[in-house]
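Problem statement: downstream parser choked on a complex file, so we are re-checking the raw output for the nicotinamide-adenine-dinucleotide run. The parser issue turned out to be on our end (a line-ending mismatch), but while we're here, posting the original submission so the record is complete.
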Amino acid sequence: MSTAGKVIKCRAAVAWEPDQPVVIEEIEVAPPLASEVRIQIVATSVCHTDLYHLLESMNKEGFPTVLGHEGGGIVESVGPGVTEFQPGDKVIPHFITQCRECRFCKSPRTNQCEKAWTRVRQEIMAGVESRFTCKGKRIHQFMGLGTFSEYTVINQIAVTKIDPAAPLDKVCLLGCGICTGYGAAVNTAKVEPDSTCAVFGLGAVGLAAVMGCKAAGAKRIIAVDVNPDKAEKAKVFGATDFVNPKDHSKPIHEVIAGMTNGGVDFSLECVGNVEVMRSALESSLEAWGVSVIVGWTDMYDVAIRPGHLICGRTWKGSVFGGFKAKDGVAGMVKAYLEKKVKVDEFITHNMALDQINEAIELMKNGKCIRAIVNVSPQ
Ligand SMILES: NC(=O)c1ccc[n+]([C@@H]2O[C@H](COP(=O)([O-])OP(=O)(O)OC[C@H]3O[C@@H](n4cnc5c(N)ncnc54)[C@H](O)[C@@H]3O)[C@@H](O)[C@H]2O)c1
Ligand SMILES: [Zn+2]
Ligand SMILES: [Zn+2]
């Protein structure tokens, strides 16, 4: 029996409050309104930004919420006026939008979109509207999505139709971490052939940045992490060196300067730590180094000396790897199917929705790169 036009009752992992495990609950998912699609989530993964909102941020707004923003699914039904999608389409939702009509979407200089939820109330890490309720309470959809649920409703400007040949339990990772790191190297830093690079933080985002540096032709890629377990994995994606700051008494930027005749051409911070952001900047060559902030935190200001920039360094930030969301996701799925980018190699665990707290713990303890959570196994 068709579920179109009806409320769907399904299972979701609800984060009722910060700093607590999420709870599998039955939630109600309303039918899609105009311009929206309702999606059955097949697979999702935990990104550090979910963890940040649940456990780390000092801002405790935005609860209760259904976390999850790195997912893939199948369109169940569409709201009035939706022509781009049909029931049965394979899709990847994204936390940034691409309406194709606003001045940002029309400019090649940004991947921001004026219709993004972040432009309304960023501090709750969700849009102001939600189609989720549970026990009579409205539940936020984290980053406008909420993929830790069997069904979700998302505006069509935050959804991309993908090649039906793509396996959702793999390419769901292109919804955030891989595009973010890869694009930060290729699109934002614009890494050049024969250059030297340093990538700080070797989660999925940093490893994807390593992969991007290699794809761009970098000759030396120094991977930096305080967790020695990440060294082997970094080589898989193209790192030529691994440096653990804990193994050195000197500041890490001095170690890197010593290895590279003064500093790297490109550095990328993929941790979300303001001290590391400064180290990454200082690790880049004073004369022309480009340093990109990819990691996320809103807890502290970041300090530098003007002299760090004045001689020629450039400091940039990057959201979703600078990719315009729909174009970027479609392109990266194609690149995966053509074996031009790695995705499977990021997956270290596979689990079911009711094990989602395990997936969160694995990431918290640095024991996974990405754990795939099979929300609605096909
Ligand atoms: N800009 C964006 O669009 C965007 C998108 C996704 C994620 N993020 C952010 O990117 C960051 C990384 O996400 P992830 O999912 O890869 O996280 P992760 O937790 O899997 O990886 C972080 C890595 O940093 C390492 N690390 C911690 N402290 C360090 C230090 N002092 N020096 C060197 N390495 C250190 C950890 O050992 C770990 O390997 C997070 O801050 C996340 O919120 C940003
Ligand atoms: Zn993410
Ligand atoms: Zn737009």
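For whoever reads this later: The two ends are 18 Å apart (CA to CA).
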